[in-house]
Amino acid sequence: MHGGQARIKAARFPSRKTIEELGFAFQTSLRRHTVLHLAQLDFLAGRENIVLLGCRRRRGTPRRRHASAR
């Protein structure tokens, strides 16, 4: 097991999905082309930042989520 797999296992995510398994039909606000482009990780070689923002509703209360990579 390489380092990335060990970190994923240690994080104890409830499930694991790949980009190929992502439900673009279900999540219509996601732009398939943009997600697949980001999955190529070109921004790492270019030393560029990306910011991912989202809002998840749960029982009527908005839950804001964000992630960033450098």
Short description, anyone?
With 70 residues, the chain is α+β, with helices and mostly antiparallel strands. It is built from three helices and two strands; from the N terminus they run αααββ. The chain has a two-stranded antiparallel sheet.
Walk me through this protein's architecture.
The chain has 70 residues and is of the alpha+beta class. It has one domain (3-69). The protein is built from three helices and two strands. The protein has helices at 3-11, 32-39, 42-45, and strands at residues 50-58, 61-69. Strands 1-2 form a two-stranded antiparallel sheet. A hairpin with a 2-residue loop joins strand 1 and strand 2 (61-69). The chain starts with a helix and ends with a strand.
List keywords for this structure.
70 residues, two-stranded antiparallel ribbon, single chain, 30% helix, alpha+beta
